[in-house]
Protein 1
Amino acid sequence: MTPTAGTLSYWEAELGNVRVPCAPIDDVPEILAHSHTKQSDIILSYEESGGGTLRGVAQPFRFSGRRLSTELPPPYLGEDSKKLLQGLGIGEAEIRDPMMRGVVN
């Protein structure tokens, strides 16, 4: 059966025929549902402060046979902005100004 033009299987076949290495790029739900992801034990679950559960994918890499630990959930948008800007040596007044103008959350 010949793949339909424009489909994933079509492009994988076309690029494979001319020896171009390729693979599809999955979105997060596809990654979470993939059998390899489940078997690799890289799905993370975090309890959100609002009471729900957030799922994500850990780094698939291992260093010296160990995976990097991920103990904290990712920050909410803007949660660490002030601390990061202070770490760059930006003063309090300069930080407040862009935040007030909506440039930085």
Note: The first strand starts at residue 43 and ends at 47.
Protein 2
Amino acid sequence: MSSNDTRSGTAVDDAGKETRMTEDTAAKRSTLGTDLLLYTVARVLAVAVPATILVLVNTPVLVALAVGLVLGLGLSLVLLRPLRARISVALAERAERRGAARRQLEAQLRGEDEPAT
């Protein structure tokens, strides 16, 4: 597990090696976290708003929640597609960076200068 200190702009990887984070890397990390939080809140609201409206018109709570879940799923599939795409791209980039770092670490542990491809 790595630790980050955004104030000093450094990161410490799993091996204890301190590396300098660029502003771009730090911005991508904060953007991914922000996007995930925004997506989660939007999904909850997509269920809560229709359910609340149905409860206000005297629909039983369980029925309102069931309808809210169905409507929320449909709404989130259509309305949150761009946000979901951004999150997918950011997660793929993160996985690629972690894979490259892992290959480099494994190469260093084997005593090689560069990772094998």
Note: The longest helix spans residues 23-56.
